[in-house]
Amino acid sequence: KITSKINETVTITATPIDENKNNAHKGKVLFKINGVSQKLVNITNGYALFRYTPETNIAKNYTIEAIYQGNWKYANSQTNSTMEITKIGTITTTRYTDAKSGMQTTVSARVEDKNQVLVNGGIVVFTLNGTYLGNATVKDGAANYTFIMPRYPTGVYRLNATYMGSASYYSSNNLNYVNVTRLTSRLVTEPVHVTVGDKVNIT
Questions:
Q1: Cα separation of 114 and 147, whole Å?
Q2: Residue 107 in contact with residue 177, Cβ under 8 Å?
Q3: Is 171 in contact with 163 (CB distance < 8 Å)?
Q4: What is the pLDDT of residue 202?
Q5: How far is CA 196 from CA 135, 193, 200, in A?
Q6: Could you give the CA distance from residue 108 to residue 93 in angstroms, rounded to a whole number?
Q7: Pick from 3, 27, 184, 193: CA 20 to 30 A from residue 91's CA?
Q8: For 60-79, what is the mean pLDDT?
Q9: Is the pLDDT of residue 176 over 80?
């Protein structure tokens, strides 16, 4: 049985052995995955090696067939095995964000697997000081959620981004912060020309 993880290439080895328990040094081995022919490999030094990367990003089991195509000296033979593709761990990172109370704000997260491959699929849930903000789907490793910043008092709030995992990936989370400030303001006045003794309105 072979065990591997999502996005990892595995090496499948077939070793033809004759009735005297000696390696067969000639011939070819046809490898099949789930009944589909993959590659015909020449035997070298008594082994046939086949490197395979699963075409799907879903953790599941595969059936492996290795069919030895003999020659004048060795009869044909075959063997079956299984390959288990398991979930892989992830790393989620979110960034520090500046926000204005009552204004549109975007929070974001980046999700990679343990091999630093960008993740596709699943969602990231965002919370602010433990309060649910919303969620976003992960595409090409990115999850972005845009919302109107609640009228929070000025201050720094905890932003948590949690990738919820999928059929392929384990969950992970990351903590950063949102700095909430008020909108800036300025007082504008226009010059006023007056005559002494006259009443005037200043705006």
A1: 30
A2: no
A3: yes
A4: 62
A5: 65, 10, 10
A6: 9
A7: 3
A8: 87
A9: yes
**Sequence-distant (≥ 6) Cβ neighbours of residue 185 within 8 angstroms:** none
- CB count within 10 Å of CB 69 equals 15
DSSP assignment letter at 124: E
Are 159 and 178 in contact by the 8 Å Cβ rule? The answer is yes
User: What confidence tens digit (pLDDT) does each residue in 91-125 have?
Assistant: 999 999 999 988 999 999 999 998 898 999 999 99
Scanning the structure block, which residue is given the tokens 């007056």?
194
Alpha carbon distance 203, 163 (integer Å):
53
- If you write DSSP's letter for every residue of 65-112 in order, what string do you get? EEEEE--SSS--EEEEEEEEEE-B-EEEEE--EEEETTSEEEEEEEEE
Angle at 31 between CA 8 and CA 25, to 5 degrees: 110
Looking at residue 146, its amino acid is T
Q: Which of 85, 53, 52 is nearest to 66 (CA)?
A: 52
Residues 6 or more apart whose Cβ sits within 8 Å of residue 55 = none
**CA-based torsion, 77, 78, 79, 85: positive or negative:** positive
Q: Where are the beta strands (DSSP E) in 101-141?
A: 104-113, 123-128, 131-137
Nearest to 170 by CA among 92, 53, 62: 92
d(Cα 88, Cα 169) in Å, to the nearest integer?
A: 5
Quick one: how far is CA 163 from the chain centroid? Answer: 9
Helix (H) / strand (E) containing 177: strand 172-181
Residue with tokens 């075409």: 55
